Amino acid sequence: MSSLPTRKYIFTEDFVQEEKVPESPYIIGVCGGSGSGKTSVCREIIKQLTNKRVSLLSQDWFYKKLKEKDLENVSEYDWDHPDALDLDLLVETLQKIKKGAAVTCPKYDFCNNQPSTTEYATVEGDVILFEGIHIFHTEELRDLIDIKVFVDVDNDIRLGRRILRDTKERGRNVESIINQYFKFVKPGYDNFVAPTRKYADIILLRGSSNKIAINLLINIPGEMEISNQNKQVFCYIGNKTLESVIFALQMIKINENNNNNNNKSSLINLNYMKIKELFCQRSHI
Ligand SMILES: Nc1ncnc2c1ncn2[C@@H]1O[C@H](COP(=O)(O)OP(=O)(O)O)[C@@H](O)[C@H]1O
Ligand SMILES: O=c1ccn([C@@H]2O[C@H](COP(=O)(O)O)[C@@H](O)[C@H]2O)c(=O)[nH]1
């Protein structure tokens, strides 16, 4: 028996396409300091992966619930220490997602410094964009991520963006943002986030405005096979190479021999003949 049953081939008029049926979602981990553009990078990738089921998973949804006394004095609370997060629950959740489960999480309410009671996100799909400042912090987490991206943006730009974002979206004022930044955010970045840059497979400079890097990222070949064009096509008849046509013919032949289903077999035969005909015409055989 050939090893082909783990692969699925789609035969159409113009091309032969291999469809990889993922055993578990592909996890793209996007790490970086607060305000580096992690969420924006994830949104850009999600926008472009139109032919895949894609979800976002944010580390922010795993902040521990604050005790009453901490809630009364939030300006003294350090959200930039990894201990502020329930990393065990995060690992457990990611393991479930990796096994193909759909997991629903409450989002995080930054205005009230607690998990949202009204907004939820269901995470499932072929590709999961997983973002957060501490997602490379433990080996357990890193091992669950298929490709690790670190968004590298200067401190001053990150602070500027954070001021603009948090005054508009997170119910903060400029003074509290600057105080929090120098007391917790910057030390947290220097002590815990920047040291995990070394685990990245890709360093993404300039974040979501780096279109070239984002395009490369969505087209990471082989393992991912994700793209909104037919990049999965390994043999395109209109632009064939000798090797790719021979390979396609071999694949079709093996499929044909292994296939007992008459309808499918005739479809394969049809395409086999068409490929053969096209190949012979173009190659003047
Ligand atoms: N390349 C960019 N240029 C300008 N502003 C950006 C860029 N990327 C993100 N932003 C803005 O900066 C703020 C922080 O971005 P965000 O994606 O939320 O960062 P992170 O998730 O890393 O904290 C947001 O208001 C966002 O719109
Ligand atoms: O209640 C909270 C929880 C977190 N923060 C800050 O959020 C950032 C991490 O989120 P990004 O989306 O990466 O910016 C972290 O630096 C915390 O300081 C908060 O202010 N309040």
From TrEMBL:
Record GO terms (molecular function): kinase activity
UniProt entry keywords in alphabetical sequence: ATP-binding, Kinase, Nucleotide-binding, Transferase
The protein's Enzyme Commission number: 2.7.1.48
Domain (Phosphoribulokinase/uridine kinase) ranges: 27-213
Pathway recorded for this protein: Pyrimidine metabolism; UMP biosynthesis via salvage pathway; UMP from uridine: step 1/1; Pyrimidine metabolism; CTP biosynthesis via salvage pathway; CTP from cytidine: step 1/3
Chain segments annotated as coiled-coil in the UniProt record: none
InterPro entries tied to this protein: P-loop_NTPase (IPR027417), PRK/URK (IPR006083), Uridine_kinase-like (IPR000764)
Top-rank lineage group of the source organism: Eukaryota
Protein's UniProt keywords contain Kinase: yes
Catalytic activity field: uridine + ATP = UMP + ADP + H(+); cytidine + ATP = CMP + ADP + H(+)
Family: Belongs to the uridine kinase family.
Entry-linked PANTHER family: URIDINE KINASE (PTHR10285)
Name assigned to this protein: Uridine kinase
UniProt organism field: Anaeramoeba flamelloides
